[in-house]
Amino acid sequence: MGNSLKLKQMHLTVFLAAALCLTSCEIYRNNALKLAHGGGLVMVNDMHHAWAWEDVLHKKTGYTAQQVKVVEGAGLTRIYIYSVKLGESKKALAQRINEVATIDPEIFGPTVVIIEE
User: Fold this and answer.
1) What is the pLDDT of residue 34?
2) The pTM is what?
3) Is there a contact between 56 and 45 (Cβ–Cβ < 8 Å)?
4) In terms of Cα–Cα distance, which of 1, 95, 96, 106 is closest to 49?
5) Which residue among 24, 61, 75, 108 is least packed, with the fewest CB closer than 10 Å?
6) What is the CA angle 9-14-16, rounded to 5?
7) Closest Cα partner for 110 from 69, 50, 32, 42?
């Protein structure tokens, strides 16, 4: 009976140590990202967010890079709308982009839409 209790305590200790390690790793990763973004570094995940936007805007909706430009940045993707297809408005496209960014932030990340006149 005593060995069973010691074994359970050991498992609990190992589990808590692993949970603490994972939590501290996540905190370290978040702090490292903040520091890198604060220094203006564009990280790989920033590029993935921009590529996701390019895939949606250029490949799936057919906008050219001259019409809608996607610029990856440090922790933020900027989307510049220069022109839209006939019968659409820049404001409506910007609203749709913001809705998509809100619905799926893991894929698209923080996004700012800028309408160019």
Assistant:
1) 61
2) 0.69
3) no
4) 106
5) 24
6) 90
7) 50
